[in-house]
Amino acid sequence: MGEATPTGAAMGMAGGVNGAAYMTISNAGDVPDRLLKAESDVAGSVELHTVIDNNGVKEMRPVEAVDVPAKGEVRSSRAASISC
Fold this sequence. Notes:
The chain is mainly beta and 84 residues long. 0% of the residues lie in helices and 51% in strands. It has no helices and eight strands. The mean pLDDT is 83.
């Protein structure tokens, strides 16, 4: 079974409604796990994204799931590959 630990958050542009939450998703199990969705009591919707570098410009792209290795973790941040 996995565990998500919050590590930060960011607000969108001034006057915007978007934001981002960052976390470390840990898997103490012996088999890989997969995060299929995220939910929030305060957000109208939650999406999973990856961050790519497009000629020096960071861009978010939606992903269907986040794979978490057995006895491993996935860390998300502004600079990391996954934003939840």
